[in-house]
Design a protein that fits this description.
By secondary structure, the protein is of the alpha+beta class. The protein has helices at residues 16-27, 40-49, 55-74, 92-98, 120-123, 127-142, 171-175, 184-203, 209-215, 218-231, 254-270, 278-291, 295-305, 309-314, 320-343, and strands at 9-11, 87-90, 107-110, 115-119, 145-152, 155-163, 166-168, 181-182, 238-241, 248-250. The chain is built from 15 helices and ten strands. Strand 9 and strand 10 form a beta hairpin. Helix 6 (127-142) crosses helix 8, helix 11 (254-270) crosses helix 12 (278-291) and helix 11 (254-270) packs across helix 13 (295-305).
Length: 344
Amino acid sequence: MPENFPDFRIIGNAPETEKEDLRKEMVGYFGEHHLDSLTEGQRQQLEKGELVKTPKEEEIIDLVNQKTNELMRQSGVEPFDVPKNNYHFVPKDVYLKIKPPGAPGAAISFDRHQAAVFNATYFRKSILEFATTIFHETLHLKSHQAIQLNKVGRDLEIATSRSGVKVYSSHKQNIEGDSHGHLDGLDEAIVGEYEKKFFNDVLQMPIFKDYRDWFLSEEVVKERKLIAKERRINEDEIFWKSKDSDHKCGFPYFYQRQVLNYVVSEIQNDFSKDYVSKDKVLAEFLQACFTGRLMKVAHLVEDTFGEGSFRVLGDMDVGDQDAIRTKEHMRIIRSRFKRKNKTD
């Protein structure tokens, strides 16, 4: 078991002894009891179909732990490694049996269980995409976690309350049929933006030298420009182009990240004395992911866009059209806020 691990926050009406038992159980997920965190069906699928990691995959996991730990230190949070055994590589057919309905078809993290499962059939054809994806999922795993543990009659019910900046409905709301989440789109935007930054680090790894030389060649740069024009995105959003197939991909949550970058830019414009660059503002949002403390970023947003604007930002989900609408809404309320301040 690693020396450090997250300080899971357990809330709810369960007795303190039960909360402490759950906390110890979750800490155990970092050691030999890791598979105990999964359902019986998931465990059976993994034991039957899990693949051995390649040396290249293990090298990438080490780099990801190193880089995410650097970000944690910069945010004033005690870092920890996610053990290699907590990353599971399985064939496509096994992955599809393990992932929850509606989950992505290539990778999924189970934040409360500190596990990440990857479709090896897909990623072993696209190892650089695997590197950025494992960074993305690891950042989710290392984000703030708060767990609800409630006593209902004689039973204990457990549910995620917070994950990164995401906020889930309370136990009372869940049993009343008002189950919901909030800040999902913002959480993915923050993680996705740092995933994009990580790409430059991973591209410098010696194991990617041949790919780097090819990817930066005049021929591929020209092709990336065409792909970007076709998709109506910036060319630096295209980070993988297969040498021997038509497979290509870009960084995820493009429209959510556009919203985040617009908000960050406007905050930096208004508070340039406090934030000399947009990266300094973005770091506040990342710190909120690691600590779960939203007050500072909420104040920054509302001091820049007006009262109620953080709720508008928080209502953004992970769909493209919703993010596009959110950006337009944020532009409108920003314009109103600036006009109001001029007249006051």
